[in-house]
Amino acid sequence: MASDGGRKQFWKRSGAKVPGSIQHVYGAQHPPFDPLLHGTLIKPGSKPPTTPVKLKKVSTFQEFESNTSDAWDLGDDDDELLAIAAENLNTEVVMETAHKVIQNHSKLQEQHKFQEEHLQEEKQEEFAQLSSVACGDNRLVKSVSEGHTSSSLDNASENSSMQRSQSLPQTSILPLTSGTAEFSTSVTPALTEREASRLDKFKQLLAGPNTDLDELRKLSWSGIPKRVRPIAWKLLSGYLPANVDRRESTLQRKRKEYFAFVEQYYDSRNDENHQDTYRQIHIDIPRMSPEVLRLQPKVTEIFERILFIWAIRHPASGYVQGINDLVTPFFVVFICEYIEEEEVENFDVSSLPEEVLQNIEADSYWCMSKLLDGIQDNYTFAQPGIQKKVRMLEELVSRIDEQVHRHLDQHEVKYLQFAFRWMNNLLMREVPLRCTIRLWDTYQSEPEGFSHFHLYVCAAFLVRWRKEILEEKDFQAM
Q1: What is the DSSP code string of 38-84?
Q2: Looking at the domain assignment, is residue 111 inside a domain?
């Protein structure tokens, strides 16, 4: 059994660490810290609250395990106490006490059940308000209790809940055949107190007639709750206006415009001057992520249209390998208005109504176009934007971690050899899709997130795994 001194030392050492703190990234959006300009922020003689007095060794999991593995061991003293307690037990007292416990437990269960029903009603009203806020129109959400009532009264064809999507015109109300997971009370218990608080902040911000985009960016930097991510992304990308009254007309106009492009250009995909572009798109789509989603014929069809129309309308760059990956996050986020994000890879996209799929397709096209407007030089001839960003990454790493930079240089590892894909695919091939979506929450909240802030994320990758990099002596392994 580990000594008490060992445990006290471990918890004392670990207790000062507070995870989740957010600090400004100086050199990205904020200027470097200048003691002369920011002198008023530091009082003379004051002790910074977050700076430790001396450097402390980082605790490893093995050390944690060795110091706490005996936390539940019973000693001899415990056994003696249990034996004494057993000798002093009286059968009548035990039975009487047990009877009282059962009665109290029954009362508590009834009280808990009443509170649960009351809480469920409040949550249903809350999610109904959220849906109307997120839509910017009068979208309806049928509660779970109403759904059960209607199922006992109506015929089988009227059983599915009706919901107005924020991406649909006011005149159309489509059934969500995949369920109302976004607003179902079944997911409510999974929300932590912090998550519920953050969701409430987003709801309040989106409830006004004009959304404060600066405030939305501040909130979004630390991540966007799944339930409001679709409308938040559309606002942050500049696709939707901040004014609520203008959103519905903007959506209708932009969707009609996109499908006018499809009608005008898509039939030319087999023409001689467009055959190579379409063939390359057709080859690249099976390489996308997630793996199961990309193999569905309906998804392939949607992505082919989006990429081909973008290539035709941007002849300066045309289609370049890597652009196909940039559609995926938007497509997944917008489709998750109707399904659980965890299930998106196995979801049958063709089961959604055709009008919903058309709206998701048009919204994905325009949001991807907004993203590419800021990094289009990454995909023009010779891709000068990527080469410039790789050089900037090299300079940045040489300043923040000279040892790693010198190690790469000594082994003749060029930044372009490993960082080209980081810039071309925005790290989508390096991290899971859910991490990419979370990362894009922050990218879209930064003024130049996809072009400038992305460099600091790439540099953070190298610094994070510096130990592994420095241990490698072989070119191929590095």
Answers
A1: TGGGS-TTPPPTTS-SS--PPPPHHHHHHHHTTTT---HHHHHHHHH
A2: no
